[in-house]
Write a structure and sequence with these properties.
The protein is α+β, with helices and mostly antiparallel strands and 175 residues long. It has five helices and six strands. A hairpin with a 2-residue loop joins strand 1 and strand 2.
Length: 175
């Protein structure tokens, strides 16, 4: 590793320790961090020190089942207001948060800021994105769980469109 890469790796390790975040490190300069959210329960985030920049990459969700244009437009409209990372898609249409930082800008404070952005963007946009791109699947899952008496707790955010039809009894309070 070059001196710049060593400094960046040290800053990442310092930031992760200061934030109380454990990270897998499959090879020197590569860190896999689990960020705990409220809506999206976990966002797995790679920090990879390259020759000239730090790659930040986090899986957001798989390609949408439906309403592709509206789904991707929703994400693209957010990109202009984001710091450090942006929404991007791979060849399959799966969505990631991706960013690159020059190694000279990698400090513990900047890692804290970028990881905070990844968590915020992932958590705040997850349910709205799912509501657009996976509405039919969510409705089916709601109905299936309801029929079987399964918990609806992790689907509550989608009750406005996936829940019972007007006049139909809703789920029990313990669901």
């Amino acid at each position: 590793m070059t001196p710049a890469q060593v400094r960046a790796a040290s800053a990442i390790q310092s930031a992760l320790a200061g934030l109380g975040l454990a990270a897998g490190q499959p090879e020197p300069g590569s860190y896999l961090v689990r960020l705990e959210g409220q809506r999206k329960l976990a966002t797995m985030t790679w920090l990879i020190v390259g020759a000239h920049s730090l790659l930040v990459e986090a899986f957001f969700c798989r390609q949408p089942d439906e309403d592709h244009a509206r789904f991707y437009r929703f994400l693209l409209e957010r990109n202009g207001r984001m710091y450090g990372v942006h929404f991007a898609v791979d060849r399959q249409g799966d969505v990631y948060l991706v960013g690159r930082l020059p190694l000279a800008s990698v400090t513990a404070d900047e890692i804290d800021r970028v990881l905070g952005c990844v968590l915020t963007y992932s958590d705040e946009n997850f349910n709205p994105a799912l509501s657009i791109g996976f509405a039919s699947s969510i409705r089916k899952e709601w109905a299936w769980r309801r029929k079987r008496g399964e918990s609806l707790a992790n689907l509550r955010a989608f009750a406005q469109f996936a829940g019972p039809a007007p006049g139909e009894a809703g789920p029990s309070p313990s669901s």
